[in-house]
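Hi all, posting the design record for the shared folder.

TITLE: backbone redesign
STEP: 1 of 1
STRUCTURE INPUT:
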């Protein structure tokens, strides 16, 4: 458990927070600025739990430390930024900042290297669910939709399906469209969106269908256009795996 200590400097507090989050297998850490200070919360098994409220000045220094680690602009606090903390042997951390009336809100997504090579049999599903997913992964066309709330393991499950497919049939053409790419999958061509450059899901999927893919991973169905394209691809000889954020 992470314990806030007012006598500890910001870099040490951040290091301890990241280490503790790894130990409890938290998927996300939130730093929420308020009128009283910086609320620190983490998400475990889909549920947010508050750890402490850090005083304003120290909270700002913790935010700045995270921006430095993620190679973000420390002086820019009036617009969102996104980066990654790399070089951690336990896995990368995605850092996203967002301006609010009380300061910058920071959301951390922790990627665990111990789950980077998981197959379906490693995820703890009951036999019926695992068999159903295994059977679906062997199809040559159709759609597999993995749904659930944030932090419930949707992407981990989708990646495990792709590893099953790649291992069973190495010659299959497997391509992904993701935002962002969360883990590198051997034998899979992975593409990351760049909406600032106009490379969004709709554009990427339209172009991808001309790349002769057999299996397509769409990171997330976010709107009607993407949903329509996923269904069309599934009905025209492609196996599509995607996630949908829902309770």
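Okay, here is what came back for every position:
SEQUENCE:
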């Amino acid at each position: 458990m992470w314990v806030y200590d007012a006598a500890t400097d910001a870099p040490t507090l951040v290091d301890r927070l990241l280490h503790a989050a790894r130990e409890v297998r938290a998927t996300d850490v939130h730093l929420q600025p308020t009128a009283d200070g910086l609320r620190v919360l983490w998400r475990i098994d889909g549920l947010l739990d508050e750890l402490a409220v850090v005083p304003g000045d120290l909270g700002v220094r913790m935010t700045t430390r995270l921006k430095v680690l993620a190679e973000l602009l420390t002086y820019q606090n009036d617009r969102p930024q996104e980066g990654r903390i790399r070089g951690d042997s336990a896995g990368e951390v995605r850092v996203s900042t967002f301006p609010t009336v009380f300061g910058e809100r920071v959301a951390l997504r922790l990627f665990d290297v111990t789950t980077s090579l998981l197959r379906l049999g490693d995820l703890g599903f009951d036999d019926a669910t695992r068999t159903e997913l295994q059977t679906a992964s062997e199809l040559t066309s159709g759609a597999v939709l993995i749904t659930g709330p944030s932090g419930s393991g949707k992407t981990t499950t989708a990646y495990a399906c792709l590893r099953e497919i790649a291992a069973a049939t190495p010659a299959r053409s497997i391509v992904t469209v993701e935002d962002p790419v969360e883990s590198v999958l051997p034998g899979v061509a992975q593409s990351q969106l760049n909406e600032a450059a106009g490379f969004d899901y709709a554009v990427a999927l339209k172009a991808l269908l001309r790349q002769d893919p057999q299996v397509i991973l769409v990171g997330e169905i976010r709107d009607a256009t993407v949903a329509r394209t996923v269904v069309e691809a599934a009905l025209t000889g492609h196996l599509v795996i995607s996630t949908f954020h829902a309770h």
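COMMENT: The mean pLDDT is 90.
Let me know if anyone wants the other runs.
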